[in-house]
Amino acid sequence: MVEIAKKYENIILEVIFVVIGASILLLNIFVFSEMVPILVPLFNITGALIAIVPPFLLYYSKYKISKEMEGEFILFVTDLTESIDSGMTLPIALKHSAKRDYRSLTSYVKEISTKVDWGIPFEKALLLFAEKSKSTPIKRSVSTIIETYKVGGKLSDTLRAIGRSLIEINKIKQERSASVQSQLVTSYLIFFVFIFILIILQTFLLPALPSTTGTDVSATGAEIPPELFAQTFINFIIVQGFFAGLATGKMAEGSIIAGLKHSLLLITIGYTIFSFLSQFQIRLF
Q1: 3-state class (DSSP) for residue 33
Q2: pTM of the model
Q3: Confidence of residue 197 (pLDDT cuts 50, 70, 90)
């Protein structure tokens, strides 16, 4: 019941922030754009951030908790193995582990220990924990532990092997993250160079074209207003920032979800820089 209530509370918060952000954007389009045009980019950024960031943070926090649980699960397996090797029975080993702090995993460890004390089979308690964790590595590890426990294999040996396997996987992920740091910096530099080129086009080259009211470059000879170029460039920045962020997150952390934070950062910075600097148009001729 508590989890369900918290889930609905998060949904309500997300809806509230989206409505507030959308209201600011609508006010900016119909009111502020006429009163204070120079502040239009600021209100756009504010409204978009209010509508996107809080829901994203709620979603991303679940992802971070899941990653933290995967790291703490390695410690839990190691502690449980050491307790069983020291001569403790499984229920006592679980009680001993439940007294330790595994951060976001602590409540789950205590729940497993309590269920085993109540007479619920160990494999069923582990299976319920794996389903609640919603973590693929934990589900795989739990599946291996349950199969070993069912066939009567030595549990401590299985736990030790799983612990070593998880440690190796975690080490490989850390090495991958460290090895792509230079690529991450390169991705950001490429994006900012892209923005710089668009700013040069918007502030120097387009105003230098002969027409003063518009740019006569269409196939029919009709004039294209400069505002259309500005909006097109902004669309370029949003698309480029979104996909560059996803690619960066996938390379650095191996997850598209992690890439969303890079996308949000790139789009926000890119839109802010371009929107404010493009207001200062300079004619070369």
Answers
A1: helix
A2: 0.75
A3: very high
